[in-house]
Specification:
1 helix, 55% strand, alpha+beta, single chain
Length: 132
């Protein structure tokens, strides 16, 4: 009983240590950069900017789902797809409707998020406030 108990305890400790090291390695591999997760609404009037941006981060990767919204008068256009984040850049791939991938550069500013991107041949620098 005593010897098998020591072996099982040793194995349990080894598994815990390896799991902790693997968790730390996984955490340290994250892309860094600002936390994009959440629903962001355009601050003020940014002509041509997306009116709402939503990032739904996947904790098992450096990305997740994304939805973008444009408003033109009473017409609202939604775009859905995925994003991959590396440091302060998010590569956005929209598939509904299909759009060529593009890069958003993100900068956290106190309670706001500044996104810089090229969309439909124009460059934009838009500031968003996180919604609850």
């Amino acid at each position: 009983m005593g010897r098998s108990y020591k072996i099982l305890t040793g194995l349990a400790v080894a598994v815990i240590v390896v799991a902790g090291m693997a968790g730390f390695w996984w955490y340290s591999q994250k892309g860094g950069g600002p936390d994009l997760d959440g629903r962001w609404k355009l601050e003020g009037s940014g002509d041509g900017c997306f009116t709402t941006v939503r990032f739904a981060a996947n904790p098992l990767s450096n990305g997740g789902g994304v939805s973008l919204e444009t408003t033109n008068g009473n017409v609202v256009q939604m775009y859905y797809g995925t994003f991959t984040q590396h440091a302060n850049e998010a590569t956005v791939e929209l598939n509904n409707p299909p759009v060529d991938p593009f890069v958003m550069t993100a900068e956290a500013q106190e309670d706001a998020l500044k996104l810089v991107y090229a969309w439909e041949g124009k460059d934009y620098a838009c500031t968003y406030i996180q919604q609850q």
